[in-house]
Amino acid sequence: MGRAIIISGSPGTGKSTLSSKLANDLKMEVINLSKLVEVEELFSEIDTDRDTKVADLDRLIPRIVELIDRSEGVVIVEGHYADIVPSNLVDVAIVLRTHPKILVKRMESKGWGEKKISENVQAEILGSCTFNALEAYGKDTVYEIDTTNLSEDETASIAREIIQEKPEEYKAGRINWLSLLEADKELDKYFS
Ligand SMILES: Nc1ncnc2c1ncn2[C@@H]1O[C@H](COP(=O)(O)OP(=O)(O)OP(=O)(O)O)[C@@H](O)[C@H]1O
Ligand SMILES: [Mg+2]
Prior knowledge:
Number of helices: 9
Bound molecules: adenosine-5'-triphosphate, magnesium ion
Radius of gyration: 16 Å
Strand content: 15-25%
Structural class: alpha/beta
Helix content: 40-55%
CATH superfamily: P-loop containing nucleotide triphosphate hydrolases
CATH topology: Rossmann fold
Number of strands: 7
Order of helices and strands: EHEHEEHEEHHHEHHH
CATH architecture: 3-Layer(aba) Sandwich
Number of domains: 1
Strand order of the largest sheet: 2-5-1-6-7
């Protein structure tokens, strides 16, 4: 029976980039949730407003458990709602964070519309992925990396350190865009 490492974070924070680097370095298998939902048609409806498929969790969760079960080693599960993986299978959860200003740029370069960008950047400001991961796995299991000023390789090297050594300095709860933007009088820009 395998174990899972969770890579979560708002869209554009670099989950897929990090996961493929870790998979290469640590010889782990990756489950990308959106791809799995797409390929195995594990969705219940299509949200045309947001141009996304809504995952059918009643089918998706047992399927992930099956894939982890079948694996011999550690499986990376990546996606912005990767906290759906049952906690008894999870060794460590890493949430990637990115300053809203930079995140907007990364989302724009994915060609996303204004509404989708605005909703996702608001979720990042509120720390939704961290909140969900903490609720699912507890504070001893959840770590955060601020990728804003890091290269892709630097992010991967910190992630490896977290997986191997679980350093205190990356424990979740230290990143707070809300107060940073408020102090810079920039919060209104994102919640108008
Ligand atoms: N650590 C990093 N530092 C700077 N840029 C990065 C970093 N990681 C990824 N990027 C860049 O940010 C963009 C988004 O990365 P990626 O597609 O991996 O994000 P994602 O979290 O998987 O997004 P999605 O949820 O939409 O799948 C890419 O252009 C990538 O090159
Ligand atoms: Mg991705």
